[in-house]
Amino acid sequence: MAATASDAEFLRARAAVYDLLAAAFDGDVERLTAAMADGSFRELASALPVEPDVGPLVVEDPDPEALSIGYDNLFVVPGPHYVPPFASAHADEPSHEFESDSAFHEAGSAGELYGDPAARMARRYERLGFTPERGDGIPDHLAVQLSFLSSLAAARADADDLTTRDELRELEGETLAAMGWLDAFDESVADQDRAEGVFAALTRLTRTIVAWDAKRARSEAEADCDEDESRPTSSG
């Protein structure tokens, strides 16, 4: 049985939201400026239980060149304002047997590229047959994770049997639970983007959306468990 019309509509809306956020964190300035100008971010924020400040994201005539430079300074070019946009860099513990020749990484410390979080995300992608196209293909890059969540939501909307939908929902829950690193990422971006604040606001909005979605996913999983436990079992 396929998802109900209302469920499918909700899932497709979530897919569109994550696709927009993925594009923004992949440096797609054209998508970002269009969303800033048409009020998309204000609409997104207003739909959340806790509305984050999106003032810097609501601009009638945003400057694409300034946004491109700001993106590069924060997320692309290592320097005084650089904040790595991938989970491994914000891990609390070093990855197992990780080795790096980077001058910016101390052996035995956390904060590497292609660490355990990347390996775990890559395995999740394999389960869906998902190939990262954003974020330079780095499995735990934020743009890739958001793109994956978009693909999962779209796949759930189109799934025509209960088993497939349950498997997709489980994979979605795992992915959302693995994105707790956004807390540290959000704080770092807020520290480094104090002038214009566009990407600080974008990061806070993304963190809020993911946290809300993770809570929703946990509630769905708990409801399913309660339903399974209350279902009578056959004897004999």
TrEMBL record:
Q: Where is this region: Disordered?
A: 215-236
Superkingdom of origin: Archaea
Keywords, alphabetical = Chaperone
Gene3D superfamilies assigned to the protein according to its UniProt record, in alphabetical order = TorD-like
**DNA-binding among keywords:** no
Mind telling me which residue stretches traverse the membrane in this protein? none
Q: Which SUPFAM superfamilies match?
A: TorD-like
What is the recorded name of this protein? Putative component of anaerobic dehydrogenase
The source organism is: Halapricum desulfuricans
Identify the gene encoding this protein. Answer: torD2
